[in-house]
Specification:
The structure is a single chain. The protein is an all-alpha fold and about 120 residues long. The chain has one domain. Helix 3 packs antiparallel against helix 4. The chain is globular, with a radius of gyration of 15 Å. About 25% of the residues are buried. The mean pLDDT is about 95. Its main location: membrane. Pfam families: GtrA_DPMS_TM.
Length: about 120
C-alpha cells in the first residue's frame, strides 16, 4: 500500500510537470500561432505524453522492461483514451456549460488523472 501511494505521488508530480508543459505548448499554439483551440490542446497533450512516459518509466515505476516500444505503445494507448476523455470533458465544460477554456482544461485534467494513473499502474507498468 505504501509503494502504491508513493507511486501515486510521483505520478502526480510527473503529471504536474506534464500539465505545465501541456499548458505552455497549448498556449503557444492557441495564442501565438492562432491554431484551433482543440488542435492546440492535442499538441500540448502529445508533448506532455512523451515527457511523462520517460519520467514515469524511469522514476515513478522504475521499469526495467526491455520491451520499450511495447510499453510505450501501452502508455500511448492509455494516454489517447485519456485524451478522448479529456477532450470530451473539455468540450462539455467549455461549450455546453460555458466555463472559461483554461478552467475547463484544469477540471478535465484533474478528472482524467485518476484514469491515467490506474490504467498505467495496472496495464502499462
Amino acid at each position: 500500500m505504501v509503494t502504491w501511494f508513493i507511486k501515486l505521488l510521483k505520478f502526480g508530480l510527473v503529471g504536474g510537470l506534464g500539465i505545465v508543459t501541456d499548458f505552455i505548448i497549448t498556449w503557444l499554439c492557441k495564442e501565438r500561432f492562432r491554431w484551433n483551440k482543440y488542435i492546440a490542446n492535442a499538441c500540448g497533450f502529445c508533448t506532455a505524453v512523451l515527457q511523462n512516459y520517460a519520467l514515469n518509466r524511469y522514476w515513478t515505476f522504475q521499469s526495467r522492461d526491455e520491451q520499450v516500444l511495447m510499453q510505450f505503445s501501452k502508455f500511448l494507448l492509455v494516454s489517447l483514451l485519456g485524451l478522448a476523455l479529456n477532450t470530451a470533458i473539455l468540450m462539455l465544460l467549455h461549450e455546453r456549460l460555458r466555463l472559461p477554456f483554461y478552467w475547463s482544461k484544469i477540471l478535465a485534467i484533474a478528472l482524467v488523472f485518476f484514469w491515467n494513473f490506474s490504467a498505467n499502474y495496472y496495464f502499462t507498468f
